[in-house]
Design a protein that fits this description.
There is one protein chain. The chain is an alpha/beta fold. Helices cover about 30% and strands about 35% of the residues. It has five helices and ten strands, in the order H-E-E-H-E-H-E-E-E-E-H-E-H-E-E. The chain has a six-stranded mixed β-sheet with strand order 4-3-7-8-9-10, with helices on both faces. The chain has a two-stranded antiparallel ribbon with strand order 1-2. Strands 5-6 form a two-stranded antiparallel ribbon. Strand 7, helix 4 and strand 8 form a beta-alpha-beta unit. Helix 2 packs across helix 3. The longest helix has 14 residues. The relative contact order is 0.18.
Length: about 190
């Protein structure tokens, strides 16, 4: 998606440790018009596929998933919570994932009443690095008896291999911008085309 790549080039910051900071428009301050165009791009990619629900992970994926849902017939959006709370009651699907950004492992939890057997689920997230978060969501879907129809990613860090591994497993991934290389010294970002 040309527009997203241009925004990453103009407003993104490359930090040490393979960190790409895009909080000016994607995951702190949200550009809702951009999210809308991202949703339209995913709707075009996944056209003709049955999607009953969108699943993401808190917190950065929520806004993107909610705006994108409008392009999929306003299907429900469920987000996996990263911590147990008093609001989470009843039976739950629980797994744990390692966060590249936070450099720690955390639980991901979805109430069993919001993920059903036989549902066709689209996973959406802001970033794909090593694929740990997505594997966690895939595991929750598998446990529920739901199938993953596809995966929509805003920014994939292609050089970290998570997306290529998931594609090799047979998942249909539509990453709107794939970063093949980035240099914290120069700020240079190279995209895969």
């Amino acid at each position: 998606m040309q527009e997203l790549e241009e925004r990453i080039q103009s407003e993104g910051t490359v930090k040490e440790g393979n960190v790409l900071k895009v909080d000016a428009f994607l995951n702190h301050q949200c550009d809702v018009r951009l999210f809308d165009r991202m949703g339209a791009a995913w709707a075009e990619h996944f056209a003709g596929k049955k999607i009953d629900k969108i699943l993401t992970i808190e917190a950065s994926g929520i806004g993107i998933a909610c705006v994108a849902a409008q392009h999929f017939g306003n299907v429900p959006v469920v987000f996996a919570k990263k911590a147990q709370s008093i609001n989470l009651d009843g039976d739950q699907y629980v797994t744990s994932v390692y966060s590249f950004t936070k450099q720690k492992e955390f639980p991901v939890i979805v109430s069993k009443k919001y993920l059903d057997a036989g549902e066709h689920v689209l996973l959406i997230d802001d970033f794909l690095a090593n694929g740990k978060a997505l594997h966690g969501l895939i595991g929750l879907c598998r446990e529920a008896g739901a199938s993953v129809t596809g995966i929509g990613i805003a920014v994939e860090k292609g050089f970290q291999g998570g997306g290529d591994a998931l594609r090799a497993e047979g998942y249909d991934i539509d990453s709107l911008a794939i970063v093949d290389a980035m240099d914290p010294a120069t700020g240079e970002i190279t995209f895969r085309h």
